Amino acid sequence: MNKKKRYLLILSLMLTVCCTLPVNAAARFKKVPADMRGAVKVSSAAIREKKAGRSRALQKLRFGEKIRILGQSEKWYEIKKGSVKGYMKKSDVVMYNKEKKHIALTFDDGPGLKTTPKVLNALKKNKCRATFFLVGSSINSSTGNLLKREAKLGCETGNHSYSHPLLTGLGSAAVRSQFSRTNKNIKKYTGRTATVCRTPYGSSNGSVLGAAGCPHILWSVDTLDWKYRNTGRLISYVNSNARDGAIVLMHDIHMSTANAVDSICKNLKKKGYEMVTVTELAAIKGKTMRAGRTYYSF
Question: Which of 49, 200, 252, 292 qualifies as a FRET site for 111, CA 20 to 30 Å off?
Answer without folding.
Answer: 292
